[in-house]
Write a structure and sequence with these properties.
Layout (H helix, E strand, L loop, with lengths): L1 H6 L1 H23 L2 E5 L2 E5 L5 E4 L5 E9 L2 E8 L2 E8 L6 E6 L2 E11 L2 E6 L2 E3 L16 H9 L4 E2 L4 H18 L3 H7 L10 H27 L2
Antiparallel strand pairs: 1-2, 1-11, 2-3, 3-4, 4-5, 5-6, 6-7, 7-8, 8-9, 9-10
Length: about 230
């Protein structure tokens, strides 16, 4: 393989560039997917408006949202089981009624604060974003989460943008270190020492740093997808 790379360096450089562009486009399309996070599962919005996601245990989740002028409905599916939620709320009114499979499960008021909706029932505040274990059952979401999904003005994005930014920064440093092997040596020692060349120890540690940087980039890119 090395023989062919030396013989046709431009061809392999072009192929590597094309592969890099394809991987970058694929990664960004995955990172910027829109939908809703449900605990550690991302429900990605499909072209037909259906939300779908899978967890690490192989469970499949699906959701449809139908918003109306007086509330709307949310259908949430886990495997072969489906729950139908209906939210009744008149425009401009803070009174809310929520039904699950036709049975009333909430009657109270709603307030909006810091980008979240809070439902109040029997003088108790139910914070939006609970994991569903308190108000939900059998892994199904609680009513406050369902309410916020229905009323959300913007979808969430799948990825954590900070991680690829950090990966890009480390990638830039790695590129500079490979393209100009003595750059960081001179930046570090050039102002304090006249003359001198990197030792074998420095070259060995430089190789190790490059390996650590490459692994860190991969880890950060993966974290950008799975951490929210």
């Amino acid at each position: 393989m090395k023989k062919w790379i030396r013989k046709y360096p431009r061809v392999f450089a072009g192929l590597a560039g094309v592969l890099g562009v394809i991987l970058a486009v694929w990664y960004l399309s995955l990172l910027l997917q829109k939908g809703f996070w449900y605990d550690d599962t991302f429900l990605c919005r499909q072209q037909d408006g259906y939300y779908f996601g899978s967890d690490s245990y192989g469970g499949h989740y699906g959701m449809t949202i139908d918003k109306t002028a007086a509330g709307g409905t949310v259908s949430f599916t886990i495997g072969a089981n489906t729950r139908q939620y209906r939210i009744d709320q008149q425009p401009g009114d803070d009174q809310v009624l929520i039904y699950k499979d036709g049975e009333e499960i909430f009657k109270g008021t709603v307030t909006f604060s810091d980008g979240r909706y809070y439902l109040k029932q029997s003088a108790q505040m139910d914070e939006v974003g609970n994991n569903g274990s308190v108000l939900g059952e059998d892994l199904f979401p609680g009513y406050s989460r369902v309410y916020n999904w229905l009323m959300a003005k913007n979808l969430e994005i799948r990825g954590n943008l900070l991680m690829p930014v950090l990966a890009a920064f480390i990638g830039l440093l790695l590129f500079l270190d490979v393209r100009f092997p003595d750059l960081f040596f001179h930046l570090h020692y050039g102002l304090a020492v006249a003359g001198g060349e990197p030792s074998e120890f420095y070259r060995t540690s430089q190789s190790l740093r490059r390996m650590v940087a490459a692994v860190s980039i991969v880890v950060l890119l993966i974290m950008g997808i799975v951490i929210h």
